[in-house]
Amino acid sequence: MITRQGLADSYLASGRSREAVSVYKRVVADRERVLGPDHLGTIMARNRLGAAYQQMGKTAAAEQVCERARAGFERVLGPRHPDTLRSRADLARLYYRLGRYGDARVLLRDTVDRLERTLPEDDPLIRELREDLADIGEE
C-alpha cells in the first residue's frame, strides 16, 4: 500500500491525474479493507484522491471525496488539528472553484479563526488563507 501511495503521489505531482486517480482508488479501497475507514492513513489517501480528482477537473467527485476526508479528519484528529484545518481549507478552495463563493467564504473565515487559535500568527498557511479571503472579497 505504501509503494502504491508513493506511485500515486508521483503521478499527481507530475500532472498525470488519470493514473493518480486509478492508483489512489485502489489505495483507499485497500486501506479501508485492511486498516478501516477511520484510520489516518485511509483518510489521508482519500484526501489525496480528492486532490487528484480536482487536478483532473472532476469537481463533483472531488467535492464528495474531499468532504468525506474532511469529516474523517475532524472525527479522528479533532476540529482544531492542523491536518483537519488544511482539509477544510482545501474544501473551501474547491467551493470557490465551483462558484460557491458564499460557502467558500464562510468555511475559509471559520478555518482562519481556528488556525489563529492553533498556530502562530505568522504561520504560512494563515497568511495564504487570508490572501484567499481577500481574493473572495473579505479581509
Throw out a few tags for this protein.
7 helices; mainly alpha; globular
What's the layout of helices and strands?
Layout: H1 2-13, H2 17-34, H3 40-56, H4 59-77, H5 82-97, H6 101-118, H7 124-136
Helix pairs in contact: 1-2, 2-3, 3-4, 4-5, 5-6, 5-7, 6-7
Describe the structure.
The model has no long low-confidence stretch (mean pLDDT 93). This protein starts with a helix and ends with a helix. The chain has 7 helices and no strands. It is mostly helical. The chain has helices spanning 2-13, 17-34, 40-56, 59-77, 82-97, 101-118, 124-136.
Summarize the structure.
The protein is an all-alpha fold and 139 residues long. 81% of the residues lie in helices and 0% in strands.
Total beta-strand segments: 0
Shape: globular
Helix fraction, binned, reads over 70%
Following the backbone from N to C, one meets helices and strands in this order, namely HHHHHHH
Main β-sheet: number of strands, strand sense, barrel status? none
Based on CA atoms alone, the radius of gyration comes out at 15 Å
